[in-house]
Write a structure and sequence with these properties.
This protein has 157 residues and is mainly alpha-helical. It is built from eight helices and no strands. The protein is 72% helix and 0% strand.
């Protein structure tokens, strides 16, 4: 498919049908400075998603930290005592290390992640509820809070 023979509408349809070809054609259009042919709507959305991808990774690691901090504080005795606690501590340290690596690579994330504490807690809370169910523990008995019980500083230190 020649870049010059594709209509703007056909290009927009390619976004869902053949993403790699869509990206290739848009790149060619940009290189040729044929800006009026570019699928700007989807291109801008993709750029925004690219910027969020690494922040979402940080949020997932922060969720692991929060989940395992909560388990240490509330479920250590239920889940096998010291042995379970050691695994959670190791997981917390590993997740903090991963976040620091992402901060080194993408410094702007350092100021963005603290604002995502509640989003990370939502993920952690869901993981905790699923963990309780998987271990046949009555989730209603524990009433896991909807708001994060930890500060960002507590999670990261």
């Amino acid at each position: 498919m020649s870049t010059l023979s594709i209509s703007k509408e056909e290009l927009k349809q390619l976004y869902d049908k053949d993403f790699p070809l869509w990206a290739e054609i848009n790149l060619e259009l940009l290189k040729e400075k044929l800006y009026d042919m570019v699928d700007w709507e989807n291109l801008l959305e993709e750029i925004e998603d690219m910027g969020l991808r690494h922040l979402e990774s940080c949020i997932s690691y922060l969720a692991i930290i929060l989940e395992h901090m909560y388990k240490l504080d509330h479920f250590k005795n239920i889940a096998g005592g010291e042995k379970a606690g050691n695994g959670w501590i190791k997981s917390i340290k590993n997740a903090r290390g991963r976040i620091e690596l992402l901060f080194d690579r993408y410094p702007s994330l350092r100021s963005k992640l603290p604002q995502e504490l509640q989003n990370a807690w939502k993920e952690a809370r869901q993981n905790l509820i699923e963990w309780l169910r998987d271990n046949d523990i009555d989730e209603e008995k524990f009433n896991i809070p909807k708001s994060c019980p930890y500060t960002y500083e507590e999670a990261m230190s």
